[in-house]
Amino acid sequence: VTIKANGVTLESISAIGTTADFPSVRDYSVASGRYFITDEDEREAKVVVLGAGIASDLFGDDDPLGQTVTVGTTKLTVIGVMASKGMVADVDYDGRLYLPIHLVFEKYMPSMSPTRDRVRTIYVKAESQEAIPSIITQINALLSLRHDVDATQPDFSVQTQQDIIATQEATTAAFRDLLAWVAGVSLIVGGIGIMNIMLVSVTERTREIGLRQALGARPADVLLQFLLEAIILSLTGGLVGVAIGVGGAYIFSSVGAMQTAIVPASIPLAFGAAAAVGIFFGYYPALQAARLDPIEALRRE
User: Between the CA of residue 259 and those of 30, 46, 62, 84, 194, what are the distances in Å?
Assistant: First the structure.
């Protein structure tokens, strides 16, 4: 909806119709003023409770209590401001309006809509975790009776906080596994690139290798030289990657709505992974260089 007050207009604001028990069920407190009561809900009182962000955007440092705001085309009186809650799971709770649900049915739902007086979500707060299974059974039985449907094939779903957390954890795990696969493929591709560069380097520096061996360099010395070059090459790439990652995280956090956090332990881990890639993929070219015959190497043009 659109909300206007104090010469300020806010577009696309979420207006939530609730009953009077919403704050206690959702553990959401009112910072100033009060929440509407059951009587105000039943008689469709034209009152509204503002989210903390909405109150700040409309009234700044002024007290919004008792002020009139226009929500859509209806003028409502502000009776309360919710405590700041911020972003939770990509939902801005401070950017919401809270209205009596019967007022929402009357003023903000199409009069001919078949779902005009229906709710989409019912929140229930259990007294204890042990009571949850019994409560779910009772809810299923009650809603099946009211909806006149078979309890084994309901037209609704019941979810607990544990179900929601489990779903989010599964989604996070799948996303984490995807990132791990992408990172693994990136490391392999980068490692192959390092190996190719080092093989080309060995080919182009064959006479140099032969000369070093003729002057007394042992195969182990040549092996160590090219292995160190591969490690330095991979660590340089790791340094560039860390710089881009840290900088991108700060930019994303300052520009985007989602906050990012940099885990300090991930930085040495990144350099460790880069060094491991350099050692693993640089060993074969270094071994090829160490195995060159000095006489054959000096003959190479």
Answer: 25, 36, 29, 17, 35
Distance of CA 85 to the CA centre of its chain: 17
- As a 3-state breakdown, the chain gives helix, strand, coil percent values, each rounded to 5, of 55, 15, 30
Q: Using one digit for the tens of pLDDT, what is the confidence trace for 159-213?
A: 777 777 788 888 888 988 998 899 889 889 988 988 998 889 888 888 888 888 8
Phi-psi region of 103 (alpha: psi -120 to 50; beta: other; left: phi over 0): alpha
Q: Which residues of 215-238 are buried (b: 16+ CB within 10 A; e: fewer)?
A: eebeeeebbeebbebbbebbbebb
- Tokens representing 107? 């003023």
**Residue 114: which region, alpha, beta or left (left: phi > 0; alpha: psi -120 to 50)?**
alpha
Contact of 103 with 45, CB cutoff 8 Å: yes
User: Which letter does DSSP use for residue 130 in this model?
Assistant: G
For the chain, how many helices (H) and strands (E)? 10, 10
Q: What is the pLDDT of residues 42-65, one digit of tens each?
A: 888 899 999 988 898 888 888 889
Q: Is 45 strand, coil or helix?
A: coil
Cβ count near 276 (within 10 Å): 14
- In a 3-state reduction of DSSP, which class is residue 296? helix
Amino acid sitting at position 269:
L
Rounded-to-integer distance, Cα 189 and Cα 203, Å: 21
Q: How far apart are CA 4 and CA 71, in angstroms?
A: 7
Give the residues across from 70 on adjacent strands.
Answer: 4, 75
